[in-house]
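re: the backbone from monday

yeah here it is again, tokenized this time
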């Protein structure tokens, strides 16, 4: 994978597939990102 300097300016599909295992949609205001290392990050609106 190519190296990135600084913040991403647009969606990077290669990076997404490299780090995300799955995305769990609980409802329209709550999702959980599950990373390949097993860690999780929740997003709530």
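seq for it, each position gets an aa:
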């Amino acid at each position: 994978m190519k190296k990135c300097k600084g913040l991403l300016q647009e969606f990077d599909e290669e990076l997404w597939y490299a780090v995300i295992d799955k995305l769990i949609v609980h409802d329209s205001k709550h999702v959980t990102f599950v990373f390949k290392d097993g860690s999780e990050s929740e997003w709530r609106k």
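DSSP finds one helix and three strands in the chain. Residues 13-19 form the longest helix (7 residues).
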